[in-house]
Description:
Shape: globular
Number of helices: 10
Distance between the termini: 52 Å
Radius of gyration: 24 Å
Largest sheet: 7 strands, mixed
Helix content: 40-55%
Amino acid sequence: MPLLTISELKKGARQSSPMEASVHAQIEKINRKEASNGKPFQEIQLRDGADTITLRAWSDTEAFEACSALEPGIFVAVEGIFSHSAAFGLDSKRWEIARLDDDAIEALLEGSQERRLLLQRCDQVITHAVSSITDPRLKALCSRFLDQYGARFRRSAAARGNHHARRGGLLEHTSRMMESALALCGVYPELNRDLIISGVLFHDTGKLWETCPPERGFGIVPELRGELLGHLSIGIELVNTLWRDLPKEGWDTFTPSYEDLRLHLLHLIASHHGQLEFGSPVLPKTPEAALLHFVDNIDARMEMFFSAYQSTGPGREGPLEWVRTLGVSPVPPLDSFRNPASPQDELPL
């Protein structure tokens, strides 16, 4: 029986239904409910490093009693025969569930080799960008953040549901934004490159307290600080706190002044949602702030499209299901150009 991630299971069941498989995951929610006919069942939501699945265990199955002894936060292995339908999505009538041992839990938290390599690359993109900052004040600020909060930053999600809503999602989102922003700095050399790198790094750092899974877990459970203040306010507070603790010897001779530099960085964080109705207390008023808002929106929307394609079976040519955050039913993109005939095939005999 193959061991799959939840995403792999969903994709496999769409391509070949039914299919036998095993998944390792953490219980995010578990509730005892009743069907309209009064028949009891257990509804369990499972999450791994990149996706979620909801299964139902009916009262006449072994899984029903097994679920009664489990609770949210426990790591489990689920084995069964899974199928996919247009009406109910991924489902399984008969499945078994058991607790994972410590070695399997550690392997699950580390993620697949592909996932680990992706996050390593994202981390390298960000650290390389920070190392390229020429302004010693911004470089010191960014470096101190990574030193103090790097572990929490690397496991945070970028959102609760709209985009990159997974452990490590904030690292993915920030690295993609960093690459896009740096490419645009080459097009517009008038921009303050150091300020943009710093703004990209800090724009969502408030989410370390708003959408950060625990050290040993995948669930995105906000802390009280995140609930009461929101990530823009927390990000501004974080920059101010780090800024106060930096050594400032010799900064009086630098241009621009360190106070102007701090205010411009705070403006990038405060305005990055781009519109007042989307939560920004102020609109972008500098070219760096406008660029940050646009690359943030670009990466979020690209992720929404790619997620919609990933959640749909292959061979779908027409519009997909409506995506609320995009406001459209996405249409699959064109394939890349291919020429099946090699140059040699086109030569006359």
